[in-house]
Design goal:
The structure is a homodimer. The first copy, chain A, has about 400 residues and is α/β, with parallel strands linked by helices. Helices cover about 35% and strands about 25% of the residues of chain A. In chain A, helix 4 runs parallel beside helix 5 and helix 7 packs across helix 8.
Chain lengths: ~400, ~400
């Protein structure tokens, strides 16, 4: 049995403990060795819980124990996870994590340290919970040039948008309800402003495109301004609104953004509802593919961490290929990213809208929107859109269309 | 550069040739070696085509060339693919294939020969075209016990059902049209009677459950009896009809079947339309996941073969783990598989239906069905269903519900 440690006994950490115990026999068969949890690191005590026997408050117990070969870092955040991860890798222990913040910020450095020490830094659980997207990008899609990776990467916002759409409710009301039900944090900013999705798409685009996409340079808009009227108009156009995280390569230029998008009903992302996540990939040979599953939750996320740990055991002594290489990708300005735009505006401005956006635009009206109407533009850059929109008063909202 | 050969220059073979050439630079970077096609085996000539320079009509050129390390077997069928594959593996060449018929029939033996010779037998492209389901099952979901794998595994039948549903057309008319457009074979039996999906679900269940599921023992029904009335009633129940291939473990008993199923609109398989494929997986820790993509077509399938070839290069000297081990799984009789049943029948039999299937069943009527109505039963085995249905005359169709 290979000895392992879990750093952090929170939602994901206790899930990893459960997965490794529940499925210990099949993991033993498939790895031909098995995994035994020797330590769990947490500042708290868990009296009466079986984990109490293997609990430590001192990270040094773990990093200094040469028997420990695999470590699950499921603490989250940068401090002290960054230092702990570095020290484990330097002590020739593979590290498997769900920590998207750390991977987005220090991924390439930690991958390099892992390589230098002949071990692995795996982070399947950092994006899309249990969905095996990272291993698919690195191994199964190895013969493809990926030119788009996009998707619904945040379950909280997808849950809120799904309920707003189904119930016609206001953002604030659904958010409050989601907080009461534990689907949203008390401080919901990271989710609803798109920062969680931003980190995840930074990681996924870095792997898909081969070099680092800096998450802080990704244009990011959240869902706080989406109204029931937007969602009703979306239905009138055969669409729904999803918070999409987007990485795209067009004519050698790279774009990344997080923003609400109108998604048409023939797009496989259209029917991804509630807390589910889905990731769409386009390869130059593969064409379209999509991966769907639970994007969060203790056990689905832990399933991915545990699978990484099993792969670390199977690949002992060998650093597995990761397509995320050293160097950075320069993103093109998001306002040159081209798409159609949905526009909601006062009916009185419809005439001007035709003169600005073209006679061929088609207006829709819906009962609940009273004096407002909406149309969808031709494909254009945001820069071009803004230039035209300046000539038009009465715009209530504009939403990109996938 | 690692030298490779392609057996068969048909739809998939020419696709593999294209993928390896188009993406040769990135494959070189990612494998750190690159792949060079040294031979293409085909009985035909291709004068003027660049493949002509490396064409051979003699398999011995390939099997006897120690430089060739990787072979793509994309001929299809059992003869001579089975013999060629065995000889290549015995000559310590990895073989990558899209040949579902051969894998379903001789998979375990060929995997064993590969292991004995320290090479790999990969068959990602045999199920779901470019969808990376097999590598996900074998590597990414290694910490999960998979208790269900089901999906839309045949693009031709999905295309036919999608068009029948959208247009209200008859099976025979859409089939003829699909044949004219090249989406269906002149002899469509393997597709429309479900045998293609049967082989694929045999392969996928064998990997998911760890031992061989014999495709010939899988209960298989095709889509030839589905009528426009069934599809219209499906809509009335908020469903659509899909040909599903099903592998499921319930209380230690294994079931596999291929059959039309009613799929409800909240199921992610509901909106998988046209020639697309999708594979749903349930893991005891992962929960629900789904993989979606092009299930056929030259380039998507070739993308999976080429990725397998790249993995064979990366894993030279090492046989990669496959969860499909020696031994067989005994399937429980399909008539003990429990589900709800959709029943279409004469309105005159509605009263008897209530006395047989329970007062609580709800009838739906639709204009195009004239004197017919439909209902959905409680969950029961097919055996139980048949027992009750015997008491009822006027049943026009019965379709399982997912």
């Amino acid at each position: 049995m290979v000895k392992a440690a879990i750093l952090g006994f929170g939602t994901v950490g206790s899930g990893v403990y459960n997965v490794l115990n529940t499925n210990s026999e099949l993991i033993r068969e498939r790895t031909e060795k098995g995994i035994e949890i020797k330590y769990v690191l947490d500042l708290r005590e868990f009296p009466g819980h079986p984990v109490d026997d293997i609990l430590t408050h001192d990270f040094n117990d773990i990093v200094n124990d040469p028997e420990v070969k695999v470590v699950a870092e499921v603490m989250g955040g940068i401090k002290p996870a960054y230092e702990f991860t570095k020290q484990c890798l330097q002590a020739k222990k593979s590290v498997c994590t769900s920590n998207k913040e750390l991977v987005a910020k220090h991924g390439p450095e930690l991958l390099r340290i892992a390589r230098e020490n002949g071990v692995n830094y795996f982070f399947e659980a950092s994006c899309g919970g249990g969905i095996p997207i990272i291993r698919s990008l690195n191994e199964a899609l190895i013969a493809d040039e990926i030119d788009e990776i996009s998707g619904i990467l945040n379950g909280t916002t997808n849950y809120i948008l799904t309920r707003m759409s189904k119930e016609g409710s206001l953002f604030d009301d659904v958010l409050k309800d989601a907080q009461d039900m534990g689907y949203a944090e008390r401080n919901p900013e990271a989710d609803v402003e798109g920062f969680d999705a931003q980190r995840k798409i930074a990681i996924l685009s870095s792997i898909a495109f081969g070099k680092t996409v800096d998450n802080e340079k990704i244009h990011t808009e959240g869902i706080t301004k989406i109204t029931p009227a937007d969602l009703e108009f979306a239905k009138a156009f055969g669409c729904t609104i999803k918070l999409l995280a987007y990485g795209k390569k067009v004519d050698g230029r790279y774009y990344a953004l997080v923003s609400p998008f109108m998604v048409a009903s023939d797009n496989p992302l259209f029917s991804v509802d509630g807390v589910f996540n889905a990731i769409f990939v386009h390869g130059n040979m593969l064409g379209d593919a999509m991966f769907y599953g639970s994007g969060a939750g203790s056990l689905p996320t832990a399933s991915a961490v545990a699978a990484d740990m099993a792969q670390a055991v199977k690949n002992e002594g060998k650093t597995v290929y990761n397509n995320w290489q050293e160097g950075s990708i320069e993103l093109s300005p998001s306002d040159s990213f081209e798409c159609r735009f949905f526009v909601r505006l006062d009916k009185g401005a419809a005439g001007t809208a035709k003169s600005v956006f073209g006679e061929e635009i088609q207006f829709k009206e819906i009962p609940i929107a009273g004096d407002e109407c909406a149309f969808i533009t031709e494909v254009m850059s945001e820069k071009e859109f803004e230039k035209r929109a300046e000539k038009l008063s009465g715009i209530k909202s504009r939403i990109r269309c996938k």
